Amino acid sequence: MPLEYIPENLDFKVDFEPTRVSDKKYVINRNTGEPIAIVGKDFTCASHGDFFRSVMDAVTENLSSHEVDGANIAWRDAHHNGWAMMDMTLPNVKAKITTPKHETEIAQRIIALHGVDGTCSNTVLFGAIDFFCTNGQIRGEHDKVRRKNTSGFNLDTFIDQLNRSKQDFYAQSERLQAWANKPLYADNVKAMLESLDKGKSKRMFELYNQEAGVRGNNAFALYSAFTNYATYADERNGFKLRNTGKDTDAVSMWEREEKVSRWVDSKQFKELLAA
Q1: How far apart are CA 188 and CA 109, in angstroms?
Q2: Mean pLDDT of 58-83
Q3: What does the angle CA 274 – CA 108 – CA 67 come to, to the nearest 5 degrees?
Q4: Which residues contact 30 (CB under 8 A, 6 or more apart)?
Q5: pTM of the entire structure?
Q6: Structural domain boundaries of the chain?
Q7: 239: number of Cβ within 10 Å
Q8: Pick the residue with more confidence: 274 or 252?
Q9: Shortest CA distance to 63 belongs to which of 3, 142, 6, 145?
């Protein structure tokens, strides 16, 4: 699909209508006339289409045609289309991660989040995707570009990050290769997981063993278990989403990716790597 494409359900303008409460107002989908959310009276926002097209235009204008060629975009939405996520993969910006048992390729990701319902700020992040298992990865808190959600979103900081993104991606791939070269002992992994998140530790250790069976007993296999948790919510890993009856699945999966980013930045994970 061309980079200007926005899914029809997300490509709408936003109107506001007053509520009975003086300091609140409705967010209205102009295409359907249906209310999306109730927000504060001073809330303003760009439309999904305006925001995502500005991100896609910046990618097209600042990266080479080779880097952008073949770009694939996956979309997620929640809160009755009030929350949206664009997940772009650049398959030509790639690197190999090799272990004695396995070789895989990772490619660069650009993730953009936008809300017209007041639930999230405009956010753009950089990361990678593992082609072997399609597990998604984000690099960490320091790679996030955030702006308050206003109708005049400024992409200057994003463009600065974008121009450095290829260099940062290859630095990330070197770190992942170093993890692939770092052997781990099962007892140490198990103890670390129990310290990190006791409620999930048993299943996460099973996931690690699954990944280690393919990639070997190393830190990259552990990281792959983390990203497996963040990517799937079914029988592939046993971490199904709870059926709340609300339109929140996409947000819940994104929150898993953010949790994995915190796990990787945690004291427990860093101490395991240093052992």
Answers
A1: 31
A2: 93
A3: 140
A4: 12, 13, 14, 15
A5: 0.85
A6: 45-177, 182-274
A7: 16
A8: 274
A9: 3
Query: Are the C-beta atoms of residues 117 and 79 closer than 8 Å to each other?
Result: yes
Neighbours of 24 (CB within 10 A): 13
**Does the pLDDT at position 139 exceed 80?**
no
Query: Cβ of 117: how many Cβ atoms within 10 Å?
Result: 22
Which pair of structure tokens corresponds to residue 179?
């993890």
Tokens in use for 254?
Answer: 């994104």
Q: Give the orientation angle of helix 219-231 with respect to helix 198-215, to 10 degrees.
A: 120
- Phi/psi-derived region of residue 212, left when phi > 0, alpha when psi is between -120 and 50, beta in every other case: alpha
* Locus of tokens 């017209």: 116
Alpha helix (H) residue ranges in the chain: 48-62, 65-68, 156-180, 186-196, 198-215, 219-231, 249-264, 267-274
182-221: pLDDT as tens digits: 999 999 999 999 999 999 999 999 999 999 999 999 999 9
- What one-letter code names the amino acid at 52? F
Q: Which tokens belong to 143?
A: 């790679």
User: What sign for the dihedral angle of Cα 78, 88, 220, 163?
Assistant: negative
Bigger pLDDT: 247 vs 178: 178
Residue of 1 and 35 predicted with greater confidence: 35
Q: What is the pLDDT of residue 94?
A: 93
